[in-house]
Design goal:
This protein is α/β, with parallel strands linked by helices. It has 6 helices and 7 strands. Helices cover 35% and strands 22% of the residues. The longest helix is centred in the middle third of the chain and has 22 residues. The radius of gyration is 15 Å and the shape is globular.
């Protein structure tokens, strides 16, 4: 039986920290991690299969537009190269295009809403919720925000 390919994608920082909490699960599969380039993520390449995107904070809108556009194109090529069956993400902006690319190719999308959000949605969550095959929240109170979500508890 063919082993499922999983692509894990998130922004750096807390989103990546949460994603890496899933290591006991994703290590059982053929997996690839996508995140933003930084000193920390470059070191991750020693232990994990990692591709990096350009870091782009939204506080500089003009620069962000160019970086985001570049990342969308690079994301598409990473998707084609890795050919995942499932995309799993904890957000944020870096991950949204990958989720839509996955749906375009009829692949499964699993979104895990941020642990930091207890009563209001993230922008990424609002964008991915309509297309996610499985949308997981880490607080029961978030099921009011996302009625079709599954409460999964904290991944910390």
């Amino acid at each position: 039986m063919k082993q499922k390919k999983i692509l894990l994608i998130s922004s750096i920082g807390g989103h990546l920290t949460q994603l890496m909490q899933l290591e006991p699960i994703f290590k059982k599969y053929d997996y690839h991690i996508v995140t933003e380039k930084s000193e920390i993520t470059e070191k991750m390449k020693e232990n994990y299969p990692v591709s990096t995107l350009v870091y782009g904070a939204r506080n500089y809108p003009i620069r962000y537009l160019f970086k985001f556009s570049f990342n969308v194109c690079k994301t598409f090529f990473i998707f084609l190269r890795t050919r995942p069956d499932v995309v799993i993400t904890t957000g944020a902006h870096t991950a949204v295009p990958m989720c839509y690319i996955a749906k375009l190719f009829r692949k499964k999308v699993i979104f895990i809403e941020s642990f930091a959000k207890t009563t209001s949605p993230t922008l990424s969550g609002r964008l991915v919720y309509p297309i996610a095959d499985l949308f997981i929240v880490q607080w029961e109170s978030m099921q009011k925000v996302y009625p079709n979500a599954r409460y999964g508890g904290a991944i910390y």
